[in-house]
Structures are given as structure tokens and as C-alpha cells.
Design goal:
There is one protein chain. By secondary structure, the chain is mainly beta. 5% of the residues lie in helices and 53% in strands. The protein has one helix spanning 18-21, and strands at 7-16, 24-31, 34-41, 47-57, 63-71. It has a three-stranded antiparallel β-sheet with strand order 1-4-5, with no helix packed on it. It has a two-stranded antiparallel ribbon with strand order 2-3. The two termini are 39 Å apart.
């Protein structure tokens, strides 16, 4: 939305269906002596993310921008695994 030539506003709402893709994590380790199959339950929850943004053109050379993004944590603490944490 552009109320005038100097101001621009944006709103975005996303529904991320984690429950369809992050139900279980399966992995296999194998070497010359054998193979190990593992499965870890993930059970991530669906998430709604709301983003707001705005821009204000001070002049032709300078534009100020700000935004806000809000979403809940989709990972239940009961299935949180250190393998999926960023360092």
C-alpha cells in the first residue's frame, strides 16, 4: 500500500505447516562393519508469522525503512534436539 509518494506500507501473514514436514527425522549411519537406522520424533507445530514493514522517502537519496516480524516457536521442548540448534 502506498498512501502517497513518500510512504510505503506492507503487511504479510504466513501460515507455515511444519506438522506436515517435521513429524519425524530419520537417519542412517553405515560403514564396513554394519548399519544403524535411527528415528527421532520431531512433532513440530504449525506456525503463523505476521510481518509489518514501512518505508519513508526523505528525499531522492535517502529512504528510511523499519519492520517487525512476529512468530511463535514451532518446536516443542519435549522433542528439542541439540542436532538442530545453530552454533
Amino acid at each position: 500500500m502506498t498512501p502517497n509518494d513518500q510512504i510505503q506500507l506492507a503487511l504479510d501473514v504466513k501460515r507455515i505447516r511444519w506438522s506436515e514436514t517435521m513429524k519425524n527425522f530419520e537417519m542412517t549411519f553405515s560403514n564396513a562393519t554394519g548399519r544403524i537406522d535411527m528415528m527421532m520424533p520431531m512433532e513440530w507445530e504449525d506456525q503463523t508469522v505476521v510481518s509489518l514493514g514501512g518505508a519513508f522517502a526523505v528525499n531522492d537519496a535517502v529512504t528510511l525503512r523499519a519492520g517487525y516480524n512476529r512468530g511463535t516457536n514451532p518446536i516443542p521442548s519435549s522433542t528439542l534436539n541439540f542436532l538442530f540448534l545453530r552454533p
